[in-house]
Amino acid sequence: MKSAPSCGDKLHEECGVFGILAPPGTAVAPDIATGLLALQxxxxxxxxxxxxxxxxxxxxxxxxxxxxxxxEVFSESDMVRLNGNIGIGHVRYSTAGGSVPExxxxxxxxxxxxxxxxxxxxxxxxxxxxxxxxxxxxxAHVTTSDTEVLAYEIITARLHSPSIEEAVIRAAGNLRxxxxxxxxxxxxxxxxxxxxxxxPLVLGKKGDAWLLASESAAFQAVGAELIRDIEPGEVVVxxxxxxxxxxxxxxxxxxxxxxxxxxxxxxxxxxxxIEVRTARFQAGRALARQSAxxxxxxxxxxxxxxxxxxxxxxxxGLPFGLIFHKNSYIGRSFIKPTxxxxxxxxxxxxxxxxxxxxxxxxxxxxxSIVRGTTMRQIIDMLRAAGARQVHVRISSPPFLHPxxxxxxxxxxxxxxxxxxxxxxxxxxxxxxxxxxxxxDDLPAMVGGLGLxxxxxxxxxxxx
Length: 463
Hints:
Elements: E1 15-21, H1 29-38, E2 46-52, E3 62-67, H2 70-73, H3 76-81, E4 86-92, E5 107-111, E6 114-124, H4 127-137, H5 146-158, H6 164-172, E7 177-184, E8 189-193, E9 202-206, E10 209-213, H7 217-222, E11 225-229, E12 235-239, E13 242-246, E14 256-257, H8 259-264, E15 270-271, E16 274-275, H9 276-290, E17 297-300, H10 306-316, E18 324-326, H11 339-349, E19 350-352, H12 354-357, E20 361-366, H13 373-384, E21 389-394, H14 416-419, H15 422-429, E22 433-436, H16 442-445, E23 451-452, H17 454-457
Parallel strand pairs: 14-23, 17-20, 20-21, 21-22
Antiparallel strand pairs: 1-4, 1-10, 2-3, 2-4, 5-6, 6-7, 7-8, 8-12, 9-10, 9-11, 12-13, 15-16, 18-19
Helix pairs in contact: 4-5, 5-6, 9-10
C-alpha cells in the first residue's frame, strides 16, 4: 500500500462521495455539485462526477473531473451538458495512488455488458495484489489506482453475475480495507460499506429521489432528508422501484473510524446515530475532568478545536474565547512541497487577536498533534502576542501508529508521540503543559459505539 507524503501537521481524509437517483427528466448534476461542495472538507485536490439517463441508451455515461476545488472543476455549462437523472460524484484528497490528475474520480468504464462508474472513500489494502491478478488477465495497467482496481474487480464479477449488485457483492469478497463505495450503472445506483463500517455512508431521500453520501451534511445542502446510516457490510441498491438492502456481508463487529467524530466530519453531520458536534463537546468535557489547569481563558484552534474548547470551558467553568482570526480564502494551502512553505501557510491562515491573549494564561484545545510543527508555530505566535502561559489540551489520545484505511497518518517514524514522551512533546512544542484525551474516554464520547482506534492502540480490525 502506498501513502502520500503528509502535508503539514494535520490529518486529511481520503475522499467524499455523493450519489443520487431521481425520476426520469430530473437533472441531478446541480445537486451533485452542491453535495460535493458540502463535502469539500474531505478532499480538496480533485473533484468529478458521472451522470446518465435511466431512460436513455445504455452506455451513455457522461463524466467531468479534474484537479481543484468543486467550484473550479465544474462550470455552468457543465451543469447543462451533464444531463441525467442518475449520477455519482467525488472529492479527493490523495493518500494511496498519489496526487496526479489521472487519479481523480469517478472511474467510468465501458465493458461487454454495458458501462459503470465508481467512486470510493477509503483504502483497499490489498489493491496491489488484486492489480497483479488483473495485469495477468490483461485488464489493469501499471499506474492503475485503487478505484480502477475496484472497477475492474466489479466488471470481472459482472461477467458472471446476473446483476450489478450481485457483481458488487462478489467483488467485495476479494477486498480488504476500510471503504465506502458508490457504483453507478445506467439504470442503478449501488452503495456498499466495508464490513466493519470503518468509513461512513448514509442514505437520504428528497421527494422521489434517493441519495447516498459520506455525510448527512451533504443532504442538508440539497434539501434532502437523512433516512439512516448504511450498516457495516450492507449493500443498498437504488433503482426506479426504490431502495432495497442486501445484508449478505454484514455481521462483523463495527469499528467506525474515531476520527470522523474527532476531526474529519462536519459539526452538523450525524454519523451512525451520533451528532458530530455533541461528540466533540463531550471530548472537551472529558479533557477538563482529567486535566484541569488554572487559566484565564479556553480557546480552540480553528476550526477543529473550537467545539472541544467549548466543552472544556463548560466543564471547567473557565470562559471560552476566540483568540484567532482565520483567513477562509487561502485555498489549498495545506498542499505545500517544503517545510518552509508549510510554515508560511500557517501564518497566512491564522493570526492572533492580541487583545484577547495579552497577559493571559490560555488553555489551547486542538484535535491532534501529528508532527508538532504547526502547534509549535501557533504557540510561538501566542507568546509573541503577549500570552503569559499556553497549556495545550488535545481532544484525542496520542498518535502512535499509522492508519491503513485511507487516512493520511504518516508512518510511526513521523508521528511525534510515537518516539517521544508527553513531556518531551511538550518541550518540543513549547507549551507550559500538555495533556491528551484518555483512551478510556473515547467510547463515552460516542455513546458506546464500536470504534476503530488502531492509530492509538495498534489494534487493527483489518490487516
